[in-house]
Amino acid sequence: MKSLSNKFVHLTNYSVNKKNTEYKSNLDETACQGHKWALKALWTYLTQKGVNSEAIWEKIKDIVIKTIIASEPYVNSLVKMYVRRPYCCHELFGFDIMLDENLKPWILEVNISPSLHSNSPLDVSIKGQMIRDLLNLAGFVLPSTDSVASRPQTRTDSTCSQGSALKEKPRPASECFTAEKLKKAYYLTQKIPDQDFYSSVLDILTPDDVRILVETEDEYSRRGQFERVFPTHISMRYLRFFEQPRYFNILVTQWELKYYLNKHKGLELLKKWCVKGYHVGTGMDLAQMWSLPKSFFLQKSSVQSNGFSKLEPDRLGNLLSPNSGDLVRCLEPSPAQSLPLYKCTVGADQKPDGCLSDTALVL
């Protein structure tokens, strides 16, 4: 109790502790000295002490993923209200994690505006790299000169977004549009889905599916020293924590699960579809279009003999009611897509001793 008035003991903020007379600076990102270390220096130190740094890192990533999922409904509602185009929407969060005496990580807080001040060579080397990778990862989409010149800029256009000057996503043919909405509803109305059911989402891809997968892979290629923690090939375990199921979470997670050991094969497949124009609804015929499986129409009861719950036909019928004429009314409460999560590993050498391989990085 005698130490309660000592703010340097109970406050972890660097902006406070650097004013302590006993504070020791650190100019070397590889050195285990002073009061401010780079993450890779910490992993090196713990490894030398015989500590499994990979296990700690995995627990920290688990905390980050679950924290983001807990805030997903709130963030998603704001995205729906204020974001006209998702291309330039990104957010940088700062997670304060504390390790207890047993090296178990605990989350202290999440900063929505983490400090980017660089007061030392250590700050410059870590934060400078992180900011560069962040802007590359965001992948700002700028309108073409012709599209900007073809329409006058209004105050609304310049302050809200530049989305009005961006080229609109091509509207697919009505049959393709119906198939896309039907497929989403089908995969969101499974009461107790299993892996066999989820894996079939890749059997026949819609143009919308291909666009999302292309954007996901393109973003991954720009990650720099960021580590993607969601989606990965192990992300299926986290889907149950979402307040509402997300079709694109299912899609990208299954894609990672299928191709994480052979990225080249998946990329070549996407490239082939894009060359044919499949992602914009061309280069396809009715035989390639997704439709409800025959087993759906043969179901007589709501429970299969193997104990797994079947689709709820009544629920699917309500979602795609011909009377309403609204095929967009699927289970997803908003059009916002759950975007991949990335965790900055600048200063962490991207892969500390024992860290997962690049194919498994998703934060």
Automatic annotation (TrEMBL):
<dbReference type="GO" id="GO:0005524">
    <property type="term" value="F:ATP binding"/>
</dbReference>
<feature type="compositionally biased region" description="Polar residues">
    <location>
        <begin position="148"/>
        <end position="164"/>
    </location>
</feature>
<dbReference type="InterPro" id="IPR004344">
    <property type="entry name" value="TTL/TTLL_fam"/>
</dbReference>
<dbReference type="Pfam" id="PF03133">
    <property type="entry name" value="TTL"/>
</dbReference>
<keyword id="KW-0436">Ligase</keyword>
<protein>
    <recommendedName>
        <fullName>Tubulin tyrosine ligase like 4</fullName>
    </recommendedName>
</protein>
<keyword id="KW-0547">Nucleotide-binding</keyword>
<keyword id="KW-0067">ATP-binding</keyword>
<dbReference type="GO" id="GO:0015631">
    <property type="term" value="F:tubulin binding"/>
</dbReference>
<dbReference type="GO" id="GO:0000226">
    <property type="term" value="P:microtubule cytoskeleton organization"/>
</dbReference>
<dbReference type="GO" id="GO:0036064">
    <property type="term" value="C:ciliary basal body"/>
</dbReference>
<feature type="region of interest" description="Disordered">
    <location>
        <begin position="148"/>
        <end position="167"/>
    </location>
</feature>
<dbReference type="GO" id="GO:0070740">
    <property type="term" value="F:tubulin-glutamic acid ligase activity"/>
</dbReference>
